[in-house]
Structures are given as structure tokens and as C-alpha cells.
């Protein structure tokens, strides 16, 4: 996500960070490169122009040019302006004073509305809210069945329309059911089209008038770039959106939609979809995203993710094992599984400050292949070998490599990595409490 612009800006700001003196010409030259980087990342040209003008206005001031670290000051200004560009403060969904809170999802066909409905339902369920999904998409074949399947998988109730019911009546029926049965949140999955048309907008406008939703969220595919921005602008003009959910952001290397959508439409990005699984939905934090774009990581999101995915009792037990030098290959394998739960190594690397500056970061597919090989080798060991890897001699190594479909060389690398990790964690545990995820 946003890989292209991150690399461009990091390379650009590396030139000015260490300078003890900056001139207006230096700043203008830097901002020309910034503007080009934004345009190449599919950012709307007016947004790129206005952004650079706002940065220049602040950067050419006396406080920056005469600062002891003018380059750092410019980077700070860019970070602040990026945050403002994407919406400033994070805007989650506020629950209505009188339940249920009605969330109406709109968007084009194929943008991921139905899946996002399931993701949002799971998001609220984790916050101990009673959630109801309402199938109001009578246009796409199997849309109702898909929503029912999603609801069943996360144990959330789904209201389905009768065969003769129109979409507006289906939405009203679902909200009434939610009100009568004491649900906290009702999520409407509405119809889409291949492209925006009058019939779709008329249907959604009628539904808005009838059900008076608390939130109208556009679900848009981030990978379509400026098309997503244009779609958002059209929907906002007709319906007055309260926010946007951008899907498929994990594959959006350019990031134009994330950077443009709020500036063009006025509707903030509320959530981003970061994968196909139903728990791959994140609240959007403009300040944290700005930090990621500038290669400064996102430690707050990393901590929150670790707290959400880590069992504290297991973490405390593992910490004790490390302190007593009892860390085994079973524990090593468990830590790899923990990393997968948190979204994989590639996702975690985006959140760690400075990782983007590494010369060669392996891609997610390569990391996944290596992790599978590691776990295959560990699974091919006996229980004693996993507890006492020191007993793995030459004959045992041949047996393990054959059983796992790998090579003795790969097994040797694994054992070397295990001992290095064990040594590192032992050293870490000798200081302050390790906290969150001991093997991270």
C-alpha cells in the first residue's frame, strides 16, 4: 500500500534532512519533485497543486529557513499537510443516542459492498454491539445468499427480503426488525451497478428518504485510483456521503484514492479494507497513514494490532520461558503463527519505522513460502527434537529435510535463525519487561 510514493518521498527527503541550510530555491525544487511524485501516484492534479502550495507557504517562513534543522522542519510540515489532506483527525462511526444506528452502504457493483457489510458487522461485534445485517440488494443474483453466508460465518443475524419486496421496503422492514429486537447497529447492503446510472441513484435516494440512515458510506475500490475519486464525487453530490470505505488497499501501491478522495469530495475515509478476510478492516487514521507514507512507520497501529491478536496469558508464559532459557522450536513456530494472525510480515514491516529504507525487502509471497517451509521442517521433527534441537545430528537432519520436502541446507538455516532469535530474545528479556509480543 502506497509503496511507490513512500519510496519516492523517502529518497527525496533524504537529500534535505541533513542540510544545515535551505534556500527558497531548494524548497521549490523539492516541492516540484513532491508534486511529480503525487501525480505519478495517481493523485488528482488539483489536489497535488494545492498540497504543494500549502507546504510552500509554511516552509519558506523565517522559522524554517533559519532553523538549525530546516530539512527536518520541512518533513514535519509535509507530514502535517498530508494528515490534513486525508482528513485530519480520525473519524470513526459514532453510535446514535437512540438505537439502532443505521449504516447504509452504497457503491458500484464489484466494489466489495457485501463483504464490507460483513467486515463492519464483525468490527462492531468485537465492540460488544448487537449487529443486524439487512439484505437490500435485489439487483445482483446471489447477493442475499452471500450476505446470509457471511452473517452465519460471524454469527450475526441477517434479515432477508421477501421475493416480491422492493429494496426500499426491504430496508424499512429490516430497520424495524432491528428496532423491535433491540439491535445496536443495522447495516444495509444496497444494490450497485456496473456504472453510475439514474435508476440506481433514484433507488438509493428513495431509500435514504425512507430510512433516514445515520451514516451513508461509499464502498470504493482503491485500486481504481481516480475512478474511485470520481465515483465518490458523484455519489456525494446525490446522497451527501458521511464517509468512504476504501477496499483492496493492500494492493494499491500508488495510493491516489486515499490521498485525493477527501480533498475532492469532502467526505473522509472512515475505514480501509486490507485483505480478503473478514477481520481485515481497519479504522483509518490520517496521521498514522502520513507517518507510513514518510517511512516513519506506524507504531500505534502495531501496538493496537498486537494487543488485539495476542493472548496476554500466553505472552506472559512465553516471556517466562525466554527468561529461563526454555524457548523451543514449538514456541518459534507459534510466533510465526502469531505473525500470520497479525497480517503477515509484510504488513508488520510497513508499521516499523525505517523498514521502508531497507535496500531489499522480500515480497509477501516469498515470505509466505519461506514461513511454510519453516513450519514444514518443524512439523517433521519429533517432540524431543523440537524441545532439544541440539540433538539434531546429521542423520536426523537428512530425515527431517526429506520429510518436509526441503534441503539439509534449508534446515541448517532454520536452526541458525532459531538460535539467533533465542539469543536476541534472551538479551531483550534481561532488561525491562518485554510486553506485547515477545518474538516480534
Give a short synopsis of this structure:
This protein is of the alpha/beta class. The chain has helices at residues 3-17, 24-40, 45-59, 62-65, 70-85, 113-125, 143-153, 167-180, 198-211, 226-239, 256-265, 286-293, 299-309, 312-323, 329-341, 345-351, 364-379, 383-387, 394-404, 408-429; strands at residues 101-106, 131-136, 157-159, 185-190, 215-221, 243-247, 269-273, 281-283.
**CATH homologous superfamily of the largest domain - what is it?**
P-loop containing nucleotide triphosphate hydrolases
Summarize the main sheet.
8 strands, mixed
Mean of residue pLDDT?
82
The N- to C-terminal Cα distance equals 21 Å
What does this protein structure show overall?
This protein is an alpha/beta fold. It folds into 3 domains: 3-85, Four Helix Bundle (Hemerythrin (Met), subunit A) (Up-down Bundle), CATH 1.20.120.140; 101-286, P-loop containing nucleotide triphosphate hydrolases (Rossmann fold, 3-Layer(aba) Sandwich); 302-429, Signal recognition particle, SRP54 subunit, M-domain (434 Repressor (Amino-terminal Domain)), CATH 1.10.260. It contains 20 helices and 8 strands. Strands 3-2-4-1-5-6-7-8 form an 8-stranded mixed sheet, with helices on both faces. A hairpin with a 7-residue loop joins strand 7 and strand 8 (281-283). It is flat. The model is unreliable at 432-440 (pLDDT under 50).
Output the keywords:
440 residues, alpha/beta, Four Helix Bundle (Hemerythrin (Met), subunit A), Rossmann fold, 434 Repressor (Amino-terminal Domain), 3 domains, eight-stranded mixed beta sheet, 8 strands, flat, disordered C terminus
